[in-house]
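Open question from group meeting: does this chain pack into something compact, or does most of it stay loose? Before anyone orders reagents, we agreed to write out a predicted structure and look at it together. Recording both the input and the output here so the notebook holds the full record.
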Amino acid sequence: MDRRVSAAARTPFPANWTARVLWTALALYVLYACGILDVSWDRFVRGLDNGGRFLRRMFPPDLSAQKLDLLRVGMLESMQIAVLSTAAGIVLSLPLGLLAARNLMPGWVSWTARGAIALCRSFHPVITAILFVKAVGFGALAGVLALIVASMGFISKLFAEAIEEMSLRQVEAVRATGAGFFNVLVMGVFPQVIARFIGFCVYQLDSNLRNSTMVGIVGGGGIGATLFTAYQRFDYDFVLTILLAIIAVIMVAEVVSAQLRKAFQ
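Structure tokens returned:
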């Protein structure tokens, strides 16, 4: 016994051989994957040179009246896509998140709802947009539908988790008064989670504003379509103008969303 204590005292930080083996295996797999994917330092250096020439062709940005008009139309459509998809996603996520809460619903209901949420979260919005473009054709409708699916996957999952983390004492107190299910939701559930739900919605609006620029590249409308067309035409100075406009809009959206989250906390 004394020998084991003295040995432990001499090695206060014993070697974690499991962690060492895992890190070594990870390093070996990274080297193996780099070899298969042709990831090399030479390609990276050549890419820097090509990227430098590409950036030089983008300056100065094109600020002609015709291009600014195209930019205005595309950005306006992207913002409309973001607002519409977020509003519809919030309306659909509210009941879906409630059904997915395991502390409020029977097991078969919550797991069915969680399966639907997992399905919404399974694909990137660009992939979903490709499917909707095939279904409804090119244009803003495909982008709106794709971002609605993405919004449902994000908001409903976090809303369900927020409900599961709340205190059930207030819910039980409302039930003790003989209140019905909807009164329990209004008086016992929503007051505890509404602030977090609003925060999720504001964040999703910010996220949809960014994603609306991506779905347009595959035909979902918005500024992404204008950006893709400019790339195809090698109109790189207009590409820079679009990128700067997207950055400006996203920065403004970050400030506005942060202020909204503070207002509802």
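Observations to bring back to the group:
The chain has two domains: 15-56, 64-264.
The chain has a mean pLDDT of 84.
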